Amino acid sequence: MLPPQTLAFDADRGLSERHIRILDAAERVFARNGFHVATMHDVAAEAGMSPGNLYRYFSSKDAIIAGMAERDRSLIAADFAALDPAGGSLMDQLEALGRRHLVDEPREKAIIALQIWAEASRNPEMARMCAGIDSTVIEGLAAAVAGAKASGELPANLDDGRFLQAIFMMADGFFCRKAIEADFDAAAAADTLFAAMRALAQVMLLPSNGGPAS
Amino acid sequence: MLPPQTLAFDADRGLSERHIRILDAAERVFARNGFHVATMHDVAAEAGMSPGNLYRYFSSKDAIIAGMAERDRSLIAADFAALDPAGGSLMDQLEALGRRHLVDEPREKAIIALQIWAEASRNPEMARMCAGIDSTVIEGLAAAVAGAKASGELPANLDDGRFLQAIFMMADGFFCRKAIEADFDAAAAADTLFAAMRALAQVMLLPSNGGPAS
């Protein structure tokens, strides 16, 4: 599925202003029409260019989706890389990072994520693309948690695996709710998510030696 | 795949054997093709009937989806209604109920749920249908938690609202993962979800009088 454009984009790292304009336009079109219904013509019109010109940048809808996913992945990776153990509480930094992605982003982002997940559930290529983003998030979370354990901010016997899986499921569920419910209160739900994160970080512990799993 | 409650539901709701066969066929077709691509002809073929005959039972794909949702809603409501405070730990009963829906159901159910959520994110009619199911789940959970608080099984100062929202987000996230990841370990993820549920039930408490929210 990965077309030459994507490879060029990967090698090049930086997205041209035109690529960015197209991806932004595609996000609006996909959120409005669903990307099953949306056409390359719709995206071209939204981006204010001719279809022929659009095809010079992205060869297909799938290439656009891959470009959107890669852009998001890069931004997320950069956000996690910016977490700094020397900069105070890692849980505070993690919460601030999470709120930016969960609360500050427009609802359209959540709608697109849900459309892509739905497609990924039946399309192995799209599932691999999602897995790439998920790995970036999980690795970033895992590094932050490891740092917080090392500094004593989190309990040394925190069950990282379960803790991260629980947080990850909540974040996915958050996106679902934000996409589905037009009147979703993202700030309040984020309060819940981060209260749960902090609570679980204190009690989701590894079983003590020889003891049963909690 | 259908639990015994379905038979009671048939009798109660007047859903004919033919309706059930169509809904089952539609679930398989929608999971396989996505319901955007699936046609009434596909459903008729899978159900082993003529399109003309199918239209006597359901007038449209949307009517089939509404039928599927109503069937699920009724089953979930019946499951929650069967929780019995006199029958021992409500959290144990809730976990058993949850595992039936999260683990025992085939992956296709999660894929369909994700397709419907994606549709609901852009279709207010579908969003209302989802909200109906969500209300049934939330009300069932809330009643179980209230019962467990009344019996002393859960802390009297448990913050029900946040606790339920956290559980609900995790369950939604669980469905996403099950739908997206072909090799998803549903049993292990359910272990995480219910460990988190039990942990949060002990620590996600209302702020003490005059104190700050935890």
Summarize the entry for a quick read:
The structure is a homodimer of 214-residue chains. Chain A is an all-alpha fold.
Count of individual helical segments of chain A: 10
H and E string of chain A: HHHHHHHHHH
CA-based shape of chain A: elongated
CATH topology of the largest domain in chain A: Tetracycline Repressor, domain 2
For the secondary structure, the number of strands of chain A is 0
Domains of chain A (count): 2
Largest sheet of chain A: none
What fraction of residues of chain A sit in β-strands? under 5%
Largest interface: A-B, 49 and 49 residues
What is the rounded distance between the termini of chain A?
A: 44 Å
In CATH, the architecture of the largest domain in chain A is: Orthogonal Bundle
Structural class of chain A: mainly alpha
Radius of gyration based on Cα positions of chain A: 19 Å
Question: What's the oligomerization state?
Answer: homodimer
